[in-house]
Write a structure and sequence with these properties.
alpha+beta; Malonyl-Coenzyme A Acyl Carrier Protein, domain 2; Alpha-Beta Plaits; six-stranded antiparallel β-sheet; five-stranded parallel β-sheet; 20 strands; disordered N terminus; Acyltransferase domain-containing protein
């Protein structure tokens, strides 16, 4: 990736361009110069150090797929060396080759099987962590989801690679024979409500994971879970079975307890070198206590992901980088922070079926725009950095008025119904509606009174999205038409269209008096 930095006084604005050739760089920069969005261009303003504290989040089971890490193995020596080291460590406890399994064709891949998926995810995560460190990116905190705690603890310095490989092999090997003994069900309930629901089935069903305020996973006996799913669906509650045959984090794990404790007894945990937030128990780890007994908790007890993320957020972390073959936890992280009135930025390392090198570079560029330190010696291995030439001094005269003022002076509008963009913090447009300027509105009457049509609200919302993103399409959802907007003949009405950058909600409202109160006419979600 190639990165250019534009620094302005007080508010450093940064631009990162991901490219593979001079032509692609020219194309991306030309699009940015024209003000057009481009998939290989990211830009933003560097945050204060307190707002860019970076959390590495190691994903658990689920995101693995047959082709994961394959491009990085071919193109990134740092990644390849780390995965090869994992292969050697795993071979001490297993009789198969990780590299051979990672490079197997789709038709013969066994990546969906527990015995392979967990060690393979672990190796890909170790490789990604090494690749991030080689670019100068270091975590301010680390958290792992379920089996993701293996690579997380290794990254935090608690385990040697050999000990981490021991856990990955034995944890997955012992769980593999449990395939077919149960399944898992995702539900949209609070933790307390989930506890109440599973109480009648406590000997067969467990709360397996608490990922966010309303994202819960249950695990256990399939027949019992089917009854629970039918109850929830009858109440119009969300309930969806996951495509797994092992009841992870449930009473079904009890049968492997003794052997797991025996196999992991030789672990030699050390003090954590970075704040390490636990999901197999509550709190921040010292490191030395993460022995075989802890891993029994990790296997048997629920995943306390929400609790860990809440604590991470309480400690001031706002940027989350998923370390895994595909991002699966970003939505849960944002839900946790939204519930506490906070914002979060989540980034993937790589993404399923996307160019892995390009996706990694795009996330690296995004971190740079936030002010996260980057190792420029690695990105610029030859030559020496030089400053860009100064712009020639030209004595042309230019208006310095703000864009909203120029819009009013020149009579420009973004759209006849949308009106003009205001200088509000959130994207907001203001329009004056009347039947003289927009005579077709007079055709929409109820009892001889002009009523602004529902299609008009949808057009306003869609145009707001198109103006804001430069896209050519918009999707509207959850439309709520709340109160009619009347347009008496000879009068006009001022309306405001606002978009929330946090949750993509739009609101169309008009002022009702001098006290600042508004009447909301329509609302919904845009994509």
């Amino acid at each position: 990736g190639h990165t250019l930095a534009h620094r302005r006084q007080h508010l450093p604005e940064r631009l990162a361009v991901v490219h593979s050739s001079r032509a692609s760089l020219d194309e991306a920069l030309a699009a940015h110069e024209r003000g057009e969005p481009h998939p290989r261009v990211v830009h933003g303003r560097a945050r204060d150090a307190a707002d860019r504290k970076l959390v590495w989040v190691f994903t658990g089971m689920g995101p693995q797929w047959w082709g994961m890490g394959r491009q990085l193995l071919e193109e990134e020596p740092v990644f390849r060396d780390a995965v090869t080291a994992c292969d050697r460590a795993l071979r001490e406890f297993a009789d198969w080759s990780l590299v051979e399994e990672l490079t197997a064709g789709e038709s013969v891949s066994r990546m969906s099987e527990t015995w392979l998926a967990q060690p393979a995810n672990f190796a890909v995560q170790v490789g990604l962590a090494a690749l991030w460190r080689s670019h100068g990116v270091r975590p301010d905190a680390v958290v792992g989801h379920s089996t993701g705690e293996i690579a997380a603890f290794h990254a935090a310095g608690v385990y040697s690679l050999r000990d981490a490989a021991r856990i990955a092999v034995h944890r997955s090997r012992l769980q593999q024979p449990l395939a077919g003994t149960g399944t898992m069900l995702a539900v949209s309930l609070s933790e307390d409500e989930a506890e109440r629901r599973v109480r009648p089935y406590s000997d067969r069903v467990s709360v397996a994971a608490v990922n966010s305020p309303t994202a819960i996973t249950l695990a256990g006996d399939e027949a019992a879970l089917t009854l629970l799913a039918e109850e929830l669906r009858a109440e119009q509650q969300f309930a969806k079975f996951l495509t797994v045959e092992v009841p992870y984090h449930s009473v079904g794990m009890e049968r492997i307890k003794d052997e797991l404790l025996t196999e992991l007894a030789p672990l030699e945990p050390r003090a954590a070198q970075v704040p390490l937030y636990l999901t197999g128990a509550e709190g921040i780890a010292r490191g030395e206590e993460l022995d075989a007994a802890y891993w029994w908790k990790n296997v048997r007890d629920r995943v306390r992901f929400r609790s860990a993320i809440d604590r991470v957020a309480d400690d001031g972390h706002r940027v989350f980088l998923e370390i895994g073959p595909h991002p699966v936890l970003g939505h849960a992280i944002r839900e946790c922070l939204d519930a506490a009135g906070r914002s979060a930025l989540t980034l993937p390392s790589i993404r399923r079926k996307e160019d892995e090198t390009e996706r990694f570079a795009a996330s690296l560029g995004t971190l740079h725009t936030l002010g996260v330190p980057i190792d420029w010696d690695l990105l610029q291995p030859t030559g020496r950095p030089v400053t860009l030439p100064r712009h020639p001094f030209r004595r042309d005269r230019h208006w310095t008025e703000p864009r909203p003022v120029a819009q009013v002076r020149l009579g420009h509008r973004d759209h006849p119904l949308l009106g003009r963009r205001t200088d509000a913090t959130e994207p907001t447009w203001q329009a004056r509606l009347d039947t003289e300027a927009l005579p077709y509105l007079a055709d929409h009457r109820i009892q001889d009174t002009v009523v602004f049509p529902a299609a008009g609200y949808l057009e306003m919302a869609a145009q707001a999205v198109l103006r804001l993103t430069g896209s050519t399409t918009a999707v509207l959802a959850d439309i709520d038409l709340r109160k009619a907007l009347f347009l008496p003949d000879g009068e006009d009405r001022t309306v405001e269209v606002s978009l929330s950058l946090e949750n993509a909600a739009f609101t169309i409202a008009s002022p009702t008096g001098d006290d600042g109160e508004r009447t909301v006419h329509a609302a919904g979600i845009v994509r």
